[in-house]
Specification:
It is a single chain. 37% of the residues lie in helices and 23% in strands. The protein folds into 2 domains: 8-148 and 332-369, Nucleotidyltransferase, domain 5 (2-Layer Sandwich), CATH 3.30.420.40; 153-326, ATPase, nucleotide binding domain (Nucleotidyltransferase, domain 5, 2-Layer Sandwich). It has 13 helices and 13 strands. By secondary structure, it is of the alpha/beta class.
Amino acid sequence: MTSAPDGRLFIGLMSGTSMDGIDAVLTRHAASGMSLLAHYSHAMDQELHRDLTALATGAQDDLHSLATLDHRVAVAFADAVQGLLEKAQCPADTVCALGSHGQTVRHHPTGSTPYTMQIGDPSLIAERTGIATVADFRRRDMAAGGEGAPLVPTFHAEQFGATGVRRAIVNIGGIANATLLEGKAVKAGFDCGPGNTLLDAWIRRHRSVDYDAHGAWSAEHEHSPSLLRTLQGDAYFTRTGPKSTGPEHFNLQWLDAQIAGDEDPGTVQATLAELTAAAIDASLMTSEPPSEVYVCGGGARNTDLMRRLNQRLNAHGIKLSTTDELGLDSEWVEACAFAWLAQRTVDGLSGNAPAVTGAVGERILGGVYGQLG
């Protein structure tokens, strides 16, 4: 491996709970900080999406399915790396390492036997790409008593923290999570509740499309206050941190159990959008709420969701924008976080925030698969 003269190169890979694609980024890490050089989105094929959904929801819950999907996801991740390298015209041997979040198929961080499961065989990714792969980030934090999520707050603090400013970074993927920053220090972080996962599942059921583009369908309807109150009755919304969740909790089965079945589908979609906005808003209303909120993830492109969130935050005098304003495209923040976490692991530095996850202390996250240059 040859190093870039002005910093080392890393790749970050992220496939979220929506399971619709793999985000890949090429980043440069220098003394002045991290910069995004190139990005690439690799679509998840429909058969893989279907099988992953079946595994994640327990509809197809066997060892053979887990093992074969571990292989198939790794191949898809390696293909995403190849697409990124070709787009960036970057030789693989110039990349120090890549960080792979893996595809989460289960996350049960509480109880007597807590566990989390991200698949996508890192040995296979390393073999197919020729790049050392850092993976399995979450379980080291869980071994230290943490929830293994969210892991991005340390990156948010490094990338977006500003002296003397209290701000929140909110990622709206399948699940919405928030990081509360006081200057460059992480004060808190947690999963707020559903982000896009229920919105995507509901429109897929009723309109046979993968997502509500720009929130056009929910924008056509008013939400149902009574249904919103019912959904907000879930115990997760009143839990205090550390807390994390996933689509194994917030899914269509969860929703079906709380609706009569004769509701107007558009009204339900609008109510789900309102639920996401309300959950984020409520999570941020701590004793010291932020003065600024910056959104990243797919939800930043949902115009109706952002409108609903802005209405709520504006009532508190809180500014809402996206991380684009802070210099990093909102679409690629999560993938960049795992490039940064890979760099931390390679350098023998901790990556978790115990105040967020509940771990007993800072830990070097993940393992390295393949040969570092």
